[in-house]
Design goal:
With 314 residues, the protein is an alpha+beta fold. The protein has 6 helices and 10 strands. The longest helix is centred in the middle third of the chain and has 20 residues.
């Protein structure tokens, strides 16, 4: 699934090519990508016709294009969604789902093979669509609150990787960049948040930022043709990954073969030497009674009363 760097690359491409353009018409070629829009395919197209695109914005993995009406075109790429900008004469892509005709002699196309992504018109959503107000800010957002993040992580008993993927806590970090940040910080993904020091959480957050900025510089991470930028080009950060997808390869720090384990219907990659698994929590030991023997048995004065033998019938 495209993560923050990939979505940001797409957002920046849309900002260059479609901001200022007016939507002349919309062709919904398959209804599933607009299933979240209560207007239906025809109403979705009508709400966009004649509207000018004012900006291109992002919150975590969500994109939206504010319109001159005060509404917004809200989108999520899902597993395989692509937003491409093409000349009208370009042959249709095999999995083309929605076509936007622009007044700039260009088309914006939503292509989605698996159709887990989607588009909708957010009423009054130009500044921030109400559908995504629950999504937290991402680490590259200037208004991201580092101190609040550290406090919230350290109050939770859930594993730190699960927290990194919690879009209500921190957005934009997905499976790939979580594994990379954890490898850099030498932290196992199952380490509970409340067993990490504040300095460790801050260091991990810094690594998450660094790895995503580095990925941005290389156009994101592409393992196949499902993720491309608006020009149809792949990213190359997969060549710089230290942990993700490298099961059995030697760790670049210590040489130990990297491992893969199942995690939330996905996979986690880590170095078992550099990122040791957390030990189980110690259970409190019950204190023996001061009148008990060392083996825990009760002294005679503490022993339960014996039942009286039954009396014979008179």
């Amino acid at each position: 699934m495209p993560e923050l760097p990939e979505v940001e690359v797409v957002r920046a491409g849309l900002e260059r090519h479609v901001v200022g353009a007016t939507v002349v018409g919309v062709d919904v070629l398959h209804p599933r990508p607009v299933r979240r829009d209560l207007r239906g395919p025809a109403g979705f197209a009508a709400a966009l016709a004649g509207r000018r695109i004012e900006a291109a914005r992002r919150r975590g993995k969500y994109l939206w294009l504010p319109l001159d009406s005060g509404d917004a075109l809200l989108g999520h790429l899902g597993m395989s969604g692509q937003l491409l900008v093409q000349p009208p004469a370009t042959p249709d892509e095999r999995h083309l789902r929605v076509r936007f005709h622009l007044d700039t002699d260009l088309e914006m196309r939503f292509v989605d093979q698996r159709m887990f992504g989607g588009l909708s018109v957010s009423a009054g959503g130009a500044e921030l669509p109400p559908e995504i107000v629950h999504i937290a800010r991402d680490p590259l957002d200037p208004e991201f609150d580092d101190d609040l993040f550290v406090r919230r992580v350290r109050k939770r008993t859930s594993g730190i990787k699960r927290q990194l993927l919690d879009q209500g806590l921190i957005s934009g970090v997905g499976n790939i960049y979580a594994d990379e940040a954890l490898w850099r910080a030498r932290i196992h993904g199952e380490r509970p948040g409340d067993r990490l020091g504040a300095a460790q959480v801050r260091e991990l957050l810094g690594h998450a930022r660094e790895v995503m900025v580095a990925a941005l510089g290389q156009g994101g991470t592409s393992f196949d043709a499902l993720y491309v930028n608006v020009n149809g080009e792949s990213g190359y950060f997969d060549r710089s990954l230290h942990a993700y997808g490298r099961e059995g390869e030697p760790c670049e720090r210590c040489g130990t073969p990297l491992r893969r384990i199942a995690f939330m219907n996905r996979s986690s990659y880590f170095c078992p030497a550099c990122q040791p698994a957390p030990r189980g929590r110690r259970r409190p030991v019950a204190q023996a009674s001061p009148l008990a023997f060392r083996d825990g048995s009760l002294r005679p004065s503490q022993a339960p009363d014996r039942a009286e033998p039954p009396q014979p019938p008179r």
